[in-house]
Amino acid sequence: MASSTGILDKFKETQEEVKEVKSDRKLKVAIIGCGWIAEAHVKSYIKCPDVEIVAAADLIPGKAEAFFDGLGFDTDKLRFYPSHKELLDTEELDAVSVCTYNATHAECTIYALEKGVNVLLEKPMCVTLQEAIEICRAEKKSGKVLSIGFQPRFDENMKMIKKIVQSGELGEVYYIQTGGGRRRGIPTPFGTSFIEKETAGLGALGDIGCYSLDVVMNAVGYPKPLTVTGYKSDFFGKSPKYSNKPEYVDIFGVDDFAAGFVRLEGGIILDFRIAWAMHMDTPGDSLIFGKEGGLRIPSTDCWNGSVGGPMKIYHDVAGEQVETTIPILNNGGKDLFDMKIRSFLDAVITGSPSPVPSSQIIYNQAILDGIARSAELGKEIEIEIPEI
User: Fold this and answer.
1) Predicted model pTM
2) For residue 316, what are the CA distances in angstroms to 3, 283, 285, 296, 326?
3) What kind and span of H or E run contains 28?
């Protein structure tokens, strides 16, 4: 195999300096749901000089107060509520971060939008496609900014994947393999909210599967999913032999492995698999096959928002089979979560489009929902998404 050097010039990434927009006043922000992911939101917000966190809500009595006290806040200066409705009925807010259980993402987001509040919604968007449809309808009616929490979008390597595909270097894309997972990694250190059906709704599918889907779906322009054949299992979560919390075996109610075969608009086939636990180091690298070239995206041991090593383009140059290695790109010392928060705030201030729009992520949610429903029915299903 020969290697190509000149071709890399097409994809040399010049990290553009993003000019942050600052509000001429303090934006009033609240946190709904004070679990572990909320900590990342709070730490990013406090880096923004134009933001003031004024309130929080959590269903568990005293949890919100203890959460902010643990982060060094003067809790006497904050207001705490036992529900998202009481918070939103009382406070005059510019924005909220919804950091609740997956199963309550939809109701909290819809209520906030109906109250005229901009929303940063943690991933996954929700549990079902119907919930996603209702969220999008509420967003459209409100005219407010809704951004979904996919911080890997801001990683320079993820941007490069999209840049390569959109450049036409691969030609027309016809097949994608993607996914990821952990040999052992069922997320129980934070309690049972990730593994109970009533709170999580989805397991590995929603937790890390949504990220893997977004990488490739965003690269190819988020084509509409048409049909899905899905599979899911819970062999590890339900086994005392493999569970790191044997006492959780009886309440484990979600998938720890899932796979799907998805037909997308434009004749693209998506072959997907995701795992919280498996007897394997990886379910495979992500591959994007085009009629003029292919792209290999090395997997990671555990999802970390980036790639597992230098990517490779396989193509022909002057009649010779060539492999072009894409060096790992850095993010200039910037934290992806901080970039997620700031991009949302900038959209709120300027009224610009959402940085991670629901119009795309509804397709992501449709695939997750489709895999789950197909697995339960034991047959291929068609995906129907109405006009919003």
Assistant:
1) 0.94
2) 10, 28, 21, 15, 16
3) strand 27-32
